[in-house]
Amino acid sequence: MKTLVINCSPKGARSDCLKLTKAFVKGLETDAEILHAAELTIRPCTGCYTCWRATPGVCVHHDDMPEVLEKLTTADLVIWSTPLYCYSMPAMGKAIIDRLLPLTCPEQKACEDGATFHPTRQENHTRHMLISGCGFPNRTHNYEALLTQFALTFHNEDFPRILCLEAPLLSIEEAAPAALPYLALVQQAGAEFLRQGNISPETQQRLDAPMLPPELYRAGTAQQA
Ligand SMILES: Cc1cc2nc3c(=O)[nH]c(=O)nc-3n(C[C@H](O)[C@H](O)[C@H](O)COP(=O)(O)O)c2cc1C
Fold it and tell me: pLDDT per residue over 96-114, tens digit each?
């Protein structure tokens, strides 16, 4: 399975989320290519629509994005590895999402549920999944915006996902008794994905649970502050 990781963390290789993603990729038994957004030059979309009108499919910017688009459209699986920032993704990840515009056409189409979308310029088989970690111990009132954005951007409400609550624990040595079993579970999720194309409901349920009880975790962060 040709797998591309887009690491949206400004921390680059030191990212908590990348630890999760590497565990998942280990379960996939594949060598994934990792693009660190922090090391790429991705200029912000200027909204000129040149990629829709004057030069369909081609952006005015000359930076690293054409290479990203090429890799992204030829991968079987794209893993968006991103921390949660202000209930969404960091600006450098969002800059890449905005610059996906040349892959779409200006026409607007309606979905049955009332949503509107731009059809893609070329059909491709790429699956997109989300691996994200966050600093709070709760998903509700935290992940709604990112999940909605991802589902609408990639026209798939049922996209594969791993949302790790309390992700900073992954980088704290004393938290290893909680973090290592979680990473092993993420690897298992990768193995399931390889075998059956999805994460089993049992594994998903365990992945959705926080590593530590929220009260204990919150008390620990108060001590660190
Ligand atoms: C600017 C900023 C905004 C953040 N916003 C949120 C947030 O909305 N919800 C949350 O649970 N954690 C939030 N966090 C915490 C990060 O998601 C968390 O530390 C994560 O583990 C970082 O992952 P990384 O090491 O892969 O970058 C934020 C962190 C920063 C620096």
Answer: 999 999 999 999 999 988 9
Contact 173, 9 (CB under 8 A): no
Closest ligand 1 atom, residue 10 Cα: 27
Residue 225, pLDDT score: 60
* Residue 47: how many other CB atoms lie within 10 Å: 8
Q: Whose CA is nearest to atom 23 of ligand 1?
A: 83
Contact present, 163 and 16 (Cβ < 8 Å): no
The terminus-to-terminus CA distance of the chain in angstroms comes to 43
Q: Which domains does the chain have, with CATH numbers?
A: 3-224 (3.40.50.360)
Nearest CA to ligand 1 atom 4: 85
Report field, pTM of the whole predicted structure over 0.85: yes
